[in-house]
């Protein structure tokens, strides 16, 4: 019987190949993966675990916090604070950065995460996930204490990024800058087993993902692209398109990594409108790193997301990512409009 490659073995092999995987990064990813197993276990219990429903509190985004949001955040903090590989952490669920307690050694990496993405789907039993991003801590060399500004690095500085999707299977999808790999949780053994050793996104697609109820707020290039998709075979794109919208970014991106597609959460066209819904530091950047490593593209409509210099920890950004030819088409439409 073919021996199964586990996450640890994959990371050790990457370490040997002198990829971005240092011993600290390996420990960090293994620790996050173990925390995702615990989160997936809590999610899987559902009503039996007494963890469904809301807490009646709001997070820094002004979004109602689900019990599982806060529990998932705590699981990631507790799993990662003692290992000595991190200088600090940041999360969608926390207003400011989380400093490693003085009783633990500090490391040279920063960990950012959306502990449970897709919260609106928790109580209706639809796939949700955890997204994480790893940056180097610039302050480490200077010996000063880490601060929020140290997190404000463009997405191209990421050392690693990944997500866990808690669906019919629990999967962990990861990049350390050497392509994209996928692991499936072997629930009997409790180990992440390599099942997808080279995930790539088809260049073309005939499937788009967008929340159509926001149509009145879209910029013209987005409207033009979607209208062309809806025009089907007789339209300028010459083929019929299908539509999906799960409203869990992790699940929508996982589908695109699995069979192609384009995911759009565009910025709002109104002058007073939001720059987008998704947060750049712990949603758009990690997903863009993964999508690019899988041969796709990721922009805010016009600019490559990984080049954007963030100015605030919880900054929002428009997101257009997936099959390269489709993303570049939307980019062209923005350029023609400029
Ligand atoms: P809407 C989940 O709340 C999330 O942040 C992403 O996971 C998802 O893609 C998006 O929001 C869904 O937003 O407006 O369709 O509910």
Automatic annotation (TrEMBL):
Pathway: Carbohydrate biosynthesis. Residues 201-334 form the Fructose-1-6-bisphosphatase class 1 C-terminal domain. Mg(2+) 1 binds at residues 92, 114, 116. It comes from the Bacteria. InterPro entries: FBPase_C_dom (IPR044015), FBPase_class-1 (IPR000146), FBPase_N (IPR033391), FBPtase (IPR028343). It is found in: Cytoplasm. Belongs to the FBPase class 1 family. One of its GO terms (molecular function) is fructose 1,6-bisphosphate 1-phosphatase activity. It is an enzyme of class 3 (hydrolase). This is Fructose-1,6-bisphosphatase class 1. Its main location: cytoplasm. The keyword Ribonucleoprotein does not apply. Its cofactor is Mg(2+). Its EC number is 3.1.3.11. Mg(2+) 2 binds at residues 114, 117, 283. It holds the Pfam family FBPase_C. Homotetramer. Keywords: Carbohydrate metabolism, Cytoplasm, Hydrolase, Magnesium, Metal-binding. Substrate binds at residues 117-120, 211, 277. The keyword Nucleotide-binding does not apply. It catalyses: beta-D-fructose 1,6-bisphosphate + H2O = beta-D-fructose 6-phosphate + phosphate.
